């Protein structure tokens, strides 16, 4: 049976974070609030958990899962190298609504789907998410909805869609408008916006001091 914790109540928030951390370590799924939409997450290094996450959403490995981190320094251990442009974007927008795609470190034993050797990383600007991430480490996280349905901006909508597939729901209140993060691909010779979301193309270009093209 799923557990739902109201994180606006101090004691319940502490109990919820402890339950969520235990669930993640046990290979189970949790739902967390973020600064964009609610996310369904699991241990990023558990291939079986990622399979369960994709199954709960009703999608396959052709749509890989991104990874949320709890600190800037975590980035260095997850990617092959951190180019100067990535450092610039991290300093400008993390924690926040910008996801960065980079080649992942080949030594990592994870399976996030058909990523082509890359990983999409973000540090969310939400205290509940950050506290959990700092406790359990990087998490594979996707929007907490069934594929083809709207991404939820509150815990009840996530519960209605995912039900008992998730062990712990952390209710951090409504996230506001369900605007996704902006995705910047830094795997090539120049940055490419794969998706414009909460951070505009102009803001990315201004931070980098160069024109940025958008994927067609």
From TrEMBL:
Question: Any idea which UniProt keywords this protein has?
Answer: ATP-binding, Cytoplasm, Nucleotide-binding, Nucleotidyltransferase, Transferase, tRNA processing
Enzymatic class: transferase
Pfam families per record = Sua5_yciO_yrdC
Which branch of life, at top level? Bacteria
Cell compartment(s), UniProt: Cytoplasm
Catalytic reaction equation(s): L-threonine + hydrogencarbonate + ATP = L-threonylcarbamoyladenylate + diphosphate + H2O
Could you provide one GO biological process annotation from this protein's UniProt record?
tRNA processing
What are its GO cellular component terms?
cytoplasm
Question: What EC number(s) does its UniProt record assign?
Answer: 2.7.7.87
Record GO terms (molecular function): ATP binding; double-stranded RNA binding; L-threonylcarbamoyladenylate synthase; tRNA binding
Sequence ranges assigned to domain YrdC-like in this UniProt record: 14-199
Question: Into which family does the record put it?
Answer: Belongs to the SUA5 family.
What PANTHER family does the database record attribute to this sequence?
SUA5, THREONYLCARBAMOYL-AMP SYNTHASE
- Protein name from the UniProt record: L-threonylcarbamoyladenylate synthase
What is the protein's species of origin? Answer: Actinokineospora fastidiosa
The upper taxonomy is: Bacteria, Bacillati, Actinomycetota, Actinomycetes, Pseudonocardiales
């Amino acid at each position: 049976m799923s557990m739902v914790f109201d994180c606006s109540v101090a004691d319940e928030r502490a109990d919820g974070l402890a339950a969520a951390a235990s669930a993640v370590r046990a290979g189970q799924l949790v739902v967390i609030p973020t600064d964009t939409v609610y996310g369904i997450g699991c241990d990023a290094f558990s291939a079986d958990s990622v399979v369960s996450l994709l199954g709960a959403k009703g999608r396959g490995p052709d749509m890989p899962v991104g990874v949320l981190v709890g600190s800037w320094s975590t980035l260095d251990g997850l990617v092959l190298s951190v180019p100067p442009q990535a450092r610039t974007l991290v300093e400008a927008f993390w924690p926040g609504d910008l996801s960065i795609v980079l080649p992942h470190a080949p030594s990592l034993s994870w399976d996030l789907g058909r990523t082509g050797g890359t990983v999409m990383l973000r540090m969310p600007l939400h205290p509940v998410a950050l506290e959990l991430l700092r406790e359990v480490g990087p998490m594979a996280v996707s929007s907490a909805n069934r594929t083809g349905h709207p991404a939820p901006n509150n815990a009840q909508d996530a519960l209605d869609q995912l039900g008992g597939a998730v062990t712990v729901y952390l209710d951090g209140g409504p996230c506001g408008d369900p605007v996704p993060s902006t995705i910047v691909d830094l795997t090539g010779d120049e940055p490419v916006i794969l998706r414009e979301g909460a951070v505009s193309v102009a803001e990315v270009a201004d931070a980098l001091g160069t024109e940025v093209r958008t994927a067609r």
